[in-house]
Design brief:
There is one protein chain. Helix 3 (107-117) crosses helix 4 (123-136), helix 4 crosses helix 5 (152-165) and helix 5 (152-165) runs parallel beside helix 6. This protein is globular. It has 9 helices and 12 strands. The protein is 36% helix and 26% strand. With 255 residues, it is an alpha/beta fold.
Length: 255
């Protein structure tokens, strides 16, 4: 069986700056993996390469055995056609720091849009799916509200419901609490913890160390474009093997 996600020797540069310097990573279905590390270590870039928001120069990414973004023909690496890349993007759901909701659409309409346009669902089925996920994130009674009428935490929960409603194989979360006021952070993390308990496959970039410790099956510590250390959260947080991780944890919120 192929891994659900397999990244091999991933390289990515912005101009002269190499941001990812040969990253390898594999995930199985149901895994919850948190990626930690200081700013500029390549965490977000790795996530953006997985769903082709960024092109990458070297290495391969495969989801469920499908090579993402590129194919190899006669030992030449060739970028796939846009339509094919768009289809592959549907394998992942991504939630960003910013909620990216459409301000002129209700919470319900923000979720049904992709279901109707991309998944070609009938409106009744799309509404039922959207309501189920709004209920799941505790916002069913606010389905008719516009983003401007919701708190930041509520908007982020709608964004999570919208991504999951599309039924992706892998959920990607990029610092989803970093734009929120501290008192709103927990409501969003609680939703993610519930999803983890339900067996959803998730790769999360986070600076919430306590959360990473509690929710992860595995933690990846990124350091200067490489994986500096990875393993069981208890082992890594309580007995880091590398000095660099020990320093990072000392300066972070994990005590």
């Amino acid at each position: 069986m192929p891994h659900l996600l397999e990244i091999r020797d991933l390289h990515k540069s912005f101009g002269q700056t190499e941001v990812l310097k040969g990253v390898d990573c594999a995930m199985e279905q149901g895994d919850v993996v948190c990626v930690i590390g200081s700013s500029g270590s390549g965490k977000t870039t790795m996530l953006r390469c997985i769903n082709m928001l960024e092109d990458f120069e070297g290495g391969t990414i495969a989801i469920d055995g499908q090579q993402i973004g590129y194919e190899t023909q006669r030992s030449q690496r060739k970028r796939r056609r846009e339509r094919e890349i768009a289809r592959q993007r549907a394998l992942t759901g991504m939630v960003f720091q910013q909620f990216n909701l459409f301000p002129h659409m209700t919470a319900l309409a923000n979720i049904t849009l992709g279901l109707i346009k991309v998944k070609k669902m009938r409106r009744e089925e799309a509404n039922a799916t959207a309501e189920r996920w709004l209920d799941r994130v505790g916002l069913l009674e606010r389905k008719g509200r516009f983003p401007g009428q919701l708190s930041g935490g509520q908007q982020q929960r709608v964004a999570i419901a919208r991504a999951i409603a599309m039924n992706p194989k892998l959920m990607l979360f990029d610092e989803v609490t970093s734009a929120l006021d501290p008192e709103l952070v927990n409501e969003v993390l609680q939703v993610i913890k519930d999803l983890a308990r339900d067996g959803m496959t998730m790769l999360l970039v986070t600076h919430e160390m306590r959360f990473a410790y509690e929710v992860s099956k595995r933690v990846i510590f990124m350091n200067e474009g490489r994986i500096g250390e990875e393993g069981d959260p208890k082992q890594m947080f309580l007995k880091p093997k590398t000095e660099r991780l020990a320093e990072f944890l000392k300066s972070s919120s994990f005590h």
